[in-house]
Design a protein that fits this description.
The protein is of the alpha+beta class. It is built from 21 helices and 13 strands. It folds into 2 domains: 309 residues, no CATH class; 145 residues, no CATH class. It has a 6-stranded antiparallel sheet with strand order 8-9-10-7-6-13, covered by helices on one side. The chain has a 4-stranded mixed sheet with strand order 5-4-11-12. A 3-stranded antiparallel sheet has the order 1-2-3, with no helix packed on it. The longest helix is centred in the C-terminal third of the chain and has 30 residues. The radius of gyration is 27 Å and the shape is elongated.
């Protein structure tokens, strides 16, 4: 038979088989890529809060705090002490409080720091095992909700997602995977319990949800997703009945949470749900998280001042997401029950973003909603393949949406972030050792340090013998603007900083109100006085006894270098380019 004699139907069938073979190889390639993207996290080593946890897991008094309270960072009555030691900067609000009730995740961290290598290779292998468990549980949930092929594609896209990068690369973030794993197990048991009517499965669902809450407060994100699904399938009243054990578990958890004075207060970055600050930040943060959920645009960039761009991307992502969902529902048309289920799950995933806007925006907040988003991406990808022979325009648009946003930046972010964390994990301890050699036994003053990573130097100093480190390192300014430092008396120095003093988002973690003079604090024998503060400049006075051993430092090209305050200095500090 010649090519001219091949019927259009046979040609279409051959083309469909070829596309199916190609899509299968693509599916396998994506799984291989997802597995390879676990490897960069194994090379990171201890970084950021890992240094604090390494100290706290050995030094804190009381078994509960040392084993189960590692995420309970500090409360208002501890701020003065933390400022004195350099752990908090001088501008930290007196009422600042940041503490989370995550006893199960804290126990796992304690195991990392006592039985493994405290944030090293084996701790990251431990984190990778939790990642594997989360992907496995997500695949089970997707198979219980969607057709087999849709679930297969949604599972691999979830494994590729950049929402996993922080829990894999940063051991202290293991709570995100711990909480989500048990929340997914709870969700699967709940789905099966509703369909089979088994009380045993309902009890297991409540049990897993309670364990998930022990992993972290982000487990509550399951409630709007599961609630929306049950409401769409059963109605409001039956949905509430089925969710009653989970709601009761949440109330019990919150009762313990607030009785232990957990939560966040007076931080611009960590917001207390229900506070005026929470509602003011709700819309922009919702859009930032939407950009991460539906466009793969990392919410973590918020800490680097990317919010204006992220808000715009979030708006576009929501519009395109609605159009893509509409196309998925119509090609080919889903049954009414399937349509209700998919729309309900998507609605629940978006509603689930509202409570997590209280946290510092990051991909780890999106783990549960991303399971649903990846299902939609998977369905869109399959429908693009199915539509290709007859409706190539629709197929190209759906395929482009999946390629750009369902895969898009995720592999790149998964590879680059661990590499940058590994660099920080090497450089900060090296910088701490250099400062310790130069400033041993002295009070170190950092003037012009516009790099948030340097704020962890105090954590590294805590791990050093007291005789081999500075008495304290106080970051007097982390502003990126021009600095002028001048000695006005034998024991007095004036510092003027141009521009906003708290310009960097990181510096505003420690307070939720603008600086206002007068302020006077004594820190390790050095008196810091705020003379004037405005949007254009900030003026400080530093009173340092003439015989006090002090070591003055600033940041130039990413390196902490000494300065001599006895002569007038004019400079602009420079962090390492990113």
């Amino acid at each position: 038979m010649s090519l001219a004699q091949v019927s259009p139907q046979v040609a279409a069938e051959r083309g469909a088989r070829s596309l199916n073979r190609s899509s299968r190889w693509l599916w396998i390639a994506l799984w291989v890529l997802a597995a390879l993207l676990v490897l960069p996290g194994l090379r990171v080593g201890p970084v950021f809060d890992d240094w604090f946890h390494s100290y706290d897991s050995h030094a804190l008094t009381g078994t509960w705090r040392r084993v189960f309270g590692l995420y309970d960072f500090f409360h208002a009555d501890q701020v003065a002490q933390a400022r004195e030691s350099g752990v908090l900067p001088w501008w930290a609000d007196d009422r600042l409080s940041i503490g989370f009730f995550r006893p199960l995740s804290s126990l796992l961290l304690w195991v990392d720091h006592h039985w493994l290598d405290g944030g090293g290779f084996w701790s990251h292998v431990h984190a990778a095992l939790w990642f594997g468990g989360v992907v496995w549980a997500a695949a089970r949930v997707l198979r219980s909700l969607f057709a087999e092929d849709d679930a297969r594609w949604g599972s691999v896209l979830f494994a590729l997602s950049s929402v996993h990068v922080t829990p894999l690369a940063f051991v202290a973030s293991i709570h995100a995977h711990v909480s989500v794993l048990f929340a997914l197990l709870s969700f699967e048991c709940l789905i099966r319990a509703v369909r089979l009517g088994e009380a045993r499965l309902r009890a297991w669902s409540a049990f897993w949800f309670l364990i998930a809450l022990g992993g972290g407060e982000s487990a509550v994100v399951l409630l709007p997703i599961a609630g929306a699904l049950l409401w769409a399938e059963l109605g409001l009243k039956p949905a509430l009945v089925w969710l009653a054990p989970h709601l009761l578990a949440t109330l019990l958890y919150l009762a313990v949470y607030f009785s232990l004075d957990m939560g966040t207060h007076h931080s611009w970055a960590y917001l207390q749900p229900g506070s005026p600050e929470f509602f003011r930040a709700l819309v922009p943060r919702f859009l930032v998280l939407s950009a991460g959920l539906l466009a793969g645009f990392p919410p973590d960039l918020w800490l680097f001042g990317a919010q204006p761009v992220q808000v715009g991307v979030g708006l576009v992502a929501l519009v395109l997401g609605v159009l893509a969902l509409r196309a998925v529902l119509r090609s080919p048309p889903l049954a009414a029950a399937e349509t209700r289920r998919l729309v309900a799950l998507c609605t629940g995933a978006l509603v689930a973003l509202l409570p997590v806007t209280s946290g510092v925006p990051g991909g780890r907040l999106l783990l549960l909603p991303t399971v649903i988003a990846c299902a939609v991406f998977g369905m869109a990808g399959r429908r693009a393949v199915q539509a290709w022979p007859e409706r190539k325009g629709r197929a190209l648009l759906l395929g482009a949406w999946v390629a750009l946003f369902g895969v898009g930046l995720h592999p790149l972010f998964r590879a680059l972030v661990p590499a940058d964390m590994a660099r920080v994990g090497r450089e900060i301890p090296a910088t701490a050792r250099a400062i310790a050699d130069r400033c041993k036994g002295q009070v170190a003053l950092g003037i012009g340090v516009p790099d948030p990573n340097q704020s962890y130097l105090s954590a590294v100093f805590l791990l050093m013998p007291e005789a081999q480190r500075p008495r304290a390192l106080h970051l007097i300014s982390m502003a990126p603007g021009h600095h002028h430092l001048e000695q006005t008396a034998p024991d007095r120095y004036e510092l003027t900083v141009d521009g906003a003093f708290l310009e960097l988002p990181w510096t505003r973690i420690y307070r939720d109100t603008p600086l206002a003079a007068p302020v006077a604090l004594d820190l390790s024998g050095v008196r810091v006085e705020l003379l004037d503060a405005s949007a254009d400049s900030t003026r400080l006075a530093l009173r340092v006894p003439a015989d006090a051993p002090t070591c003055w430092l600033t940041l130039q090209k990413g390196e902490m270098v000494p300065i001599d305050p006895r002569q007038p200095l004019d400079w602009t500090p420079t962090a390492r380019p990113r």
